[in-house]
Design brief:
The structure holds two protein chains of two kinds. Chain A is an all-alpha fold. Chain A contains ten helices and no strands. The relative contact order of chain A is 0.10. By secondary structure, chain B is of the alpha+beta class. Chain B contains seven helices and nine strands. Chain B has helices spanning 7-19, 24-35, 38-51, 65-75, 91-96, 102-115, 193-196, and strands at residues 122-129, 135-142, 147-152, 162-170, 175-180, 187-190, 200-209, 223-227, 230-231. In chain B, strand 2 (135-142) and strand 3 (147-152) form a beta hairpin. The chains are: A mainly alpha, B alpha+beta. Chains A and B meet through helix 1, helix 2, helix 3, helix 4 and helix 5 of A and helix 1, helix 3 and helix 4 of B.
Amino acid sequence: MPYAQPNDPEQLRTWLLGAARKDAQAFQALYLATSPKLFGFALRILHKHELAEEALQDAFVAIWHAAGRYEATLAAPMTWMTAVVRNKAFDILRRLDAAPDIDVARFEAEVLGNVEDTAQGPAEALQTSSDARALARCLAGLEKPQRQAIGLAFFHDLSHDEVARQLALPLGTVKTWIRRGLMKLKTCLAREAA
Amino acid sequence: MNIRTNAELRDRLAAEYVLGTLKGGARRRFEGWLHGDAGLRQLVQEWRARLEPMAQLTPARPPRARVWRNIEARLHLEPPPKRWQLWHRDPLQWWRTLGLTGTAAAMALAIVLAMQRPAQQIDTVAALMDERAQAALLITADHRNGVIAVRVLGDTPVPDERSLQLWAITQQGTPRSLAVLDERGNAQIPLNDRALGSDVALLAVSVEPKGGSPNPNAPTGPVLYKGSWVRML
């Protein structure tokens, strides 16, 4: 392993600032350290390798151009970069205009299963920022339907309506779950940060 | 709907905006409010910080090598010189790939002779080169004053928010930190065997976080310049 802590935020920040100065080596180091995590995320949204690769490419082209504006956002480097990847992946979804390809059972196993692993902190946790570990612990504390509804909306760019259809539940129920789930997360994350 | 006075509604809409469930006309209306409402923008930032880390909860999957090649091609990035990481596997071989050329050594000697002052006795020099074999730094060992001086040459850039760090690489390929260069790219260190010992095979300068590498035993940033000592006596 070239880097002992691949996603050490200070190291990532240094490389992002390097990219802002058009330092191609810093940019490549940033890519090497973060691309597995970001590709895993794009693949989760888009399912197909070719599409996830396209999203990752679009995202890194955007990161290179926007790196100069990164510092002002005050966000953790991984959080900022995943937001770019998410936008690019959703752009591709919209362009394809395909019905979302969602398998709730698989989603539960892959993402929410990983939530529990990350919350407990084994190997995967090393590649995950402290923000994400806190969020994982708080998500693990939600009731399963709340967590499912929030997770589906986040990873698949769904409206309340679409989440309700995916879970085969009334719209009002889903709206309430999401609202309560979000407020519980807020309280839990405030406690984590304290 | 008065969005400014309803704190609970503001927070909920900000959360749903970040989550993505706020769609269509409602989303556009919310974005309209954001322009003139710094407090609302703050709420959105807070929800971003809360929810966006969810993206990191998916398992990592390394992308294929062609993804980076495509990014490089789209951005017209120069293919980088050999990556510094390689020396982990093949200690000394890699450092040697960019040894001093005869021309470079001759040039270093010329510079040193031009700078030689009577009070100095410079008997060992090194010119560190970039990947295009352009001399970037000059290092001189002055035995009379017991000082090794490092200075950048010409228009060698010194990064603002980072530091350049000088390393001696031993025959075994182990890096040994010698000095963190100052903001102008200069340094003076006492003459010593860590720098000049017979086990020193090469000298190298890496880019590090401000103040030097967090790891005292190895560079963390890319190595920009390399070269070796030339004894003049």
